[in-house]
Amino acid sequence: MSGKTTPEQTSPARLTFGEKFRLQTWLMGIIAFGIMLYMLMQAKFVLISLAIAIILFSLTADAINSIARMRIGSFRVTNWLASVFAVLLISSLLLALSALVLSQLNTVLSTTVNYAEQAQFAIAELFSFMGEDVEQAVLATVRSIEITGYLRTAAGQAGNLLSAVVLIILFVAFLFAERVWFSTKLVNLLGDSRQADRVGRIIGSIVRNVNYYLLVKTFVSAVTGLMVFFVCSLFSLEFAGAMGILTFMLNYIPNLGSIIATVVVALVAFVQEADPSLALLVFVSVGVLQFLVGNVIDPMLMGRALRLSSFGIIISLAFWGLVWGVPGMFLAVPIMVGLMIVCSHIPQLRPVAILLSREGLPETEMFVPQEPEPPQNISAPRQRAPRAPDAAGDTGGDTRA
Questions:
Q1: What's the rounded mean pLDDT across residues 82-102?
Q2: What's the rounded mean pLDDT across residues 342-365?
Q3: Looking at CB atoms within 10 Å, which of 119, 157, 186, 281 has the fewest?
């Protein structure tokens, strides 16, 4: 009787309730991530416009609050008047910038046809050192590319740019209209004023860090674009203005943008002049400028404000570039900053913040100052015994008013 086994002993091991719950949680998380990724890709035009609108709103919100507190004699600037001024200013800047980009794009597209045949021979000449057969094969491959199709695609993207600008202006206008009630909505949503205050400070920390990054990056990109413009003008290149604007825009993409801009400028110089030595000189000149700006000026201005992992930045660029294309690569770092700050304040997600940070120390206190916890027994506060005075005469008492 003792040697027999019961059905419970011969049955396979079953999962406990906790293991089933964890397995279901992982499966539901994978399904939710897939659904979220699908929605991000399907609604990318609207979401990209919304993200840019939020960034523009956060960049100007503090300045508008300062303007709203100004007084001109007996006249006081109201919130709605300051908001209208901000929307008009942002609209003017966006429309002027889009007009400048479209004009340069039109110049490039109209001139590309004239340089098409010259560019084919120039690209094939790059492979001449591998033999005449290879050069002819490359020339045949390049000639098989339909340039007109790419030109039509570029023209279509120009039309999307105007639509995106209009949508961004509308989003910014409604964000300014809602900003007065944001704090009240946050308190009513969370139902706890202390929790709402903490969430508000986390959002403020994200806004400050993203704003600082964008301001520094804009200044550095503008300086780099101007220097590339002067280099192209020095060598009498036809697309000097377009190369300056392209460098300014690509420098917002960390690590990869400066490399792509340098290669494009050198390639344009080679196509226009068909002189390898001149193209190499342009490549070296622009590369030295990019190296000095990216490795000296940029770190000096950025300092230790953003403790982001270089590998994390590459992963973020790859992911958002896959989901949203080139605009996603521009938004990769601001999204990564916000994600790291949010994860650093959630105990379950703090490992993610550690992986995204440079030294593995996201330092929650650096972003949001922690408030002291209220005493447990407020009816009978515990008396603190005074400590002996030190050499400086400090008695250890509370010096606050």
A1: 84
A2: 74
A3: 157
Cβ-proximal residues to 262 (8 Å cutoff; 6+ apart), any chain: 283, 286, 287, 290
Q: How many CB atoms lie within 10 A of CB 35?
A: 10
Please name the residue ranges forming H helices in 69-78.
none
Spatial separation of the C-alpha atoms in residues 221 and 252, rounded to whole Å: 7
Residues in the chain: 401
Distance between CA atoms of residues 82 and 67, nearest Å:
6
- Read off the DSSP letter of residue 382: P
Yes or no: say if 90 and 172 are a contact pair by the CB < 8 Å rule. Answer: yes
Spell out the long-range contacts of 198-202 with Cβ–Cβ below 8 A and sequence spacing 24 or more.
Answer: 198/368, 198/371, 201/368, 201/369, 202/341, 202/342, 202/345, 202/367, 202/368
Which DSSP string corresponds to 69-132? T-EETTEE--HHHHHHHHHHHHHHHHHHHHHHHHHHHHHHHHHHHHHHHHHHHHHHHTTGGG-H
Mean per-residue pLDDT of the chain: 76
Indicate the pLDDT class of residue 371, thresholds 50, 70 and 90.
very low
Tell me the per-residue pLDDT of 209-226, one tens digit each, with 9 for 90 and over: 888 888 888 888 999 999
Return the residue matching tokens 């910038």.
Answer: 97
pLDDT of amino acid 174: 87
Q: Are 52 and 172 in contact (CB under 8 A)?
A: no
Strand partners, 357: 308
Q: What angle is formed at CA 53 by the lines to CA 50 and CA 54, rounded to 5 degrees?
A: 90
* DSSP result, 204-263: HHHHHHHHHHHHHHHHHHHHHHHHHHHHHHHTT-TTHHHHHHHHHHHTTSTTHHHHHHHH
- Average pLDDT, integer, range 250-269: 86
Tokens of 231: 């280099």
Distance, in Å, from the CA atom of 130 to the CA atom of 126, rounded to the nearest integer, reads 9
Q: What is the mean pLDDT of residues 252-273?
A: 84
Closest to 134 (Cα-Cα) out of 118, 123, 145: 123
Domain ranges of the chain: 43-191, 213-302, 307-370
Residue 116 tokens read as 């098409």
pLDDT at position 316 over 60: yes
Tens digit of each residue's pLDDT (9 = 90 or more) over 126-157: 677 777 777 777 777 766 666 666 666 666 66
**CA–CA distances in Å: residue 287 to residues 254, 276, 384, 385:** 15, 16, 64, 66
Who's near 367: CB < 8 A, 6+ residues apart? 202, 205, 209, 341, 344, 345
Q: If DSSP codes are grouped into helix, strand and coil, which group holds residue 370?
A: coil
